[in-house]
Specification:
The structure holds 2 protein chains of 2 kinds.
Chain A: H1 2-24, E1 30-33, H2 35-43, E2 50-53, H3 77-81, E3 87-91, H4 97-105, E4 109-113, H5 119-133, H6 136-161, E5 167-173, E6 179-182, H7 187-194, E7 198-199, E8 207-210, H8 212-218, E9 222-226, H9 232-240, H10 249-252, E10 256-259, H11 261-265, H12 271-283
Parallel strand pairs in A: 1-2, 1-3, 3-4, 5-7, 5-9, 9-10
Antiparallel strand pairs in A: 5-6, 6-8
Helix pairs in contact in A: 5-6, 6-12
Chain B: H1 22-50, H2 58-66, H3 73-107, H4 120-134, H5 140-146, H6 150-170, E1 171-172, E2 175-176, H7 178-202, H8 205-216, H9 224-240, H10 245-251, H11 255-260, H12 265-287, H13 293-305, H14 309-333, H15 342-365
Antiparallel strand pairs in B: 1-2
Classes of the chains: A alpha/beta, B mainly alpha.
Chain lengths: ~290, ~375
């Protein structure tokens, strides 16, 4: 018991020491937790410093070659320590807390990246990660580019939308014909807004199953969903045949937009491109 | 209901598990089995300290310590703050679940009974879900004091609370009706399930993920604090269990018969229910939902030593601990550096074993 307590205090003091050391000697063995975090590390040209990633980090493809420490909210302390990291960069919400406490004891520096679904959120993420990596110069170039692209993309999107923004229904899944839709305060809500659309669902927060009648009542012009492989045509037919969707303008005009989940909802370096692609899909098809 | 009773035929005093002829051999056999199981637990414990995602070896660490060398900080943390508390927690939880299973099956005279029947799991599950989803509504001061302990503490008291409700419901005039408890347990389980459903609906994405993982169980969050919190409760229940053996043997004949041969039936029920609520409540609180240990272990042991609870209770503690440690080793190593929830491992291994036992014993059970 005494040993445990002294270990604890030693661990804490060492963690402080490590914090001050990290500023001097940049970390060289980094674990990245969170799909967009990994993307940003690679975008900053620092991918070679990663030694492991979590299960949501699937882009860029070379990230998938790294050891996988599991799901971001169910990290195992020994699993993470086994890759001998000196820095963990994780999106907020990584855990569990028990694991984070052990990692702190083991004097592994930890950097938490805030998750905000807006243009500023993307910038803030990149700034936080660049600071943790000590990659100031490279970050400035990337940040300038992304700030510019984000602004341009949002401007283009707003222009395309004009005075008649489309109503977009984000469908997370249709398990057993029941539609799980994206409400307020979700990544889907954020990206729809940035791409010049209106989230058709504004009656609840988060992703929730909706009753058929409520889905019909949202009357979306476009349905947005994540891409799960090359099955576009079939999936649209399936979606359009759901009773809840039949009366909606989206189903009647066959307007379904699908995109890879991480680039759609990741809020990372690819977000400007995502906004452009989405807004084009929202409006260029619309005018036809 | 009294499926276990018929296997007692030919034994002079069923409450003592028999005292003449063949049962003596059986008792020797049971004692040998206890030694074998204890040795097995020891081997599994050492193995479990040796293997893990990290390359740290308990042998080289011992060598370093003997030679008077200081362990590296990483090795020290992996051995003393990760693997050792996890080992202790695994032993406690495995023993608690297996012994609870034996006691429940004895008390309800039903080979399918598990601690879920006294409402522990339903109550603990509901309380854990409530803590995960609504924990943020608590006053900040209380939340900070409990920290990571919020969910375990809630689960433990939730389990206890629901057992108490069931016990009260089923007790009239100092007599607890086991049948009422069984039925009320189903009703309470359904209610807890419905309330959990409401909370699941309210949960956000992260909370949903947490709920899912909690339900699959894990020893990954093992800390010394959890070990020290679970130790007194599970320890007390495990110490009380051997004293229940004679009573549970008697109950196998039916409550009336047990009363006639001098078993204090109501006291056996009280102690059994409290021990199971405590042990399972604490186990679920620190490790989430881990299935099949409570069912498979007692049945495996009955295959070799029969229904006598005297060897069954201590052997179940040993085998339960061993199996849970083995399952945990698989969970830790198979997809390292990530890890599987242990409930998946116990279910994948436990369900087929249970089926096999069922087929093997079908004749004996009269199924």
């Amino acid at each position: 018991m005494m040993g445990f307590i002294s270990n604890l205090t030693r661990g804490v003091s060492l963690a402080f020491l490590a914090g001050s050391l990290a500023a001097a000697a940049p970390a060289e063995r980094i674990v990245s937790v969170g799909g967009s975090v990994t993307e940003i590390v690679y975008a900053l040209g620092e991918g070679h410093r990663l030694v492991a990633r979590d299960s949501t980090s699937s882009y860029p493809p070379q990230a998938e070659a790294l050891p996988n420490v599991g799901y971001a909210r169910a990290l195992s302390p020994e699993g993470v320590l086994s890759v001998d990291p000196d820095l963990i960069i994780a999106s907020s919400g990584a855990g569990p807390l028990e694991t984070l406490e052990v990692l702190k004891q083991a004097n592994v520096a930890y950097s938490e990246v805030p998750e905000v679904y807006s243009a500023d959120g993307v910038i803030q993420k990149i700034e936080t990660i660049a600071e943790a990596l000590g990659a100031g110069d490279k970050a400035r170039a990337l940040l300038d580019g992304i700030k510019h692209d984000l602004k341009a993309a949002q401007k283009d999107a707003a222009q395309r939308a004009g005075d008649t923004p489309v109503r977009v229904l984000f469908i997370l899944s249709t398990q057993g014909g029941r539609i799980m839709a994206g409400g307020r305060d979700t990544a889907a809500d954020g990206i729809i807004r940035m791409a010049g659309g209106i989230n058709a669902v504004d009656s609840f927060d988060g992703y929730k199953p909706m009753t058929d009648e409520a889905v019909s009542a949202t009357a979306p012009d476009v349905i947005l969903a994540m891409d799960r492989g090359g099955d576009h045509g079939v999936a649209m037919e399936q979606l359009a045949s759901l009773p809840a969707l039949i009366p909606t303008p989206a189903a009647q005009n066959g307007r379904l937009v699908r995109m890879d989940g991480l680039s759609l909802l990741g809020f990372g370096p690819r977000t400007p491109e995502t906004i452009q692609t989405l807004s084009r899909a929202f409006y260029e098809g619309h005018s036809k | 209901m009294s499926l276990a009773a018929d296997t007692h035929q030919g034994s002079a005093d069923p409450a003592r598990g028999g005292s003449t002829g063949a049962p003596v051999d059986r008792r020797h056999q049971a004692r040998r089995l206890t030694l074998v199981l204890a040795a097995l637990l020891l081997v599994t414990s050492v193995t479990s300290l040796t293997f893990g995602a990290a390359g740290t070896s308990v042998w080289s660490a011992l060598g370093d310590l003997v030679a008077g060398r200081e362990l590296s900080q990483l090795d020290r943390i992996i051995l003393f703050d990760i693997r050792l508390p996890r080992l202790c927690l695994g032993i406690l939880v495995g023993a608690a679940l297996a012994v609870s299973g034996v006691v429940m099956q004895g008390l309800f005279r039903n080979p399918l009974a598990d601690p879920g029947i006294v409402g522990v799991s339903a109550g603990a599950g509901l309380a854990a879900i409530t803590a995960i989803v609504l924990g943020s509504l608590l006053p900040a001061a209380l939340r900070d004091t409990l920290g990571t302990g919020l969910v375990p503490v809630a689960a433990f008291f939730g389990g206890w609370g629901s057992t108490l409700i069931l016990y009260r419901t089923a007790t009239r005039g100092g007599q607890t009706s086991v049948a009422t408890m069984l039925l009320a347990g189903i009703a309470l389980g359904a209610l807890a399930g419905a309330l959990s459903g409401i909370l699941v609906y309210m949960a956000d994405d992260n909370q949903l993920r947490d709920l899912t993982f909690w339900g699959m169980g894990s020893l990954a969050g093992a800390t010394w604090t959890k070990v020290l919190a679970a130790l007194p409760v599970i320890g007390l229940a495990l110490c009380a269990a051997p004293f229940l053996a004679r009573g549970l043997n008697g109950l196998a004949l039916g409550e009336a018969a047990a009363g006639h041969i001098g078993i204090p039936v109501q006291r056996v029920k009280n102690i059994s229910i409290m021990a199971v609520a405590g042990a399972t409540g604490a186990a679920v609180a620190v490790s989430g939902g881990i299935g099949f240990i409570g069912i498979v272990v007692p049945h495996l042991l009955r295959l070799s030593t029969g229904p006598d609870h005297h060897p069954l209770l201590p052997n179940a503690a040993l085998l339960g601990a061993t199996l849970l440690l083995a399952a945990d080793m698989i969970a830790r190593v198979i997809i390292a550096p990530a890890e599987l929830p242990i409930g998946i491992v116990t279910a994948v291994l436990g369900a087929p074993v249970f089926l096999w036992i069922l087929l093997k014993r079908r004749a004996g059970l009269g199924l």
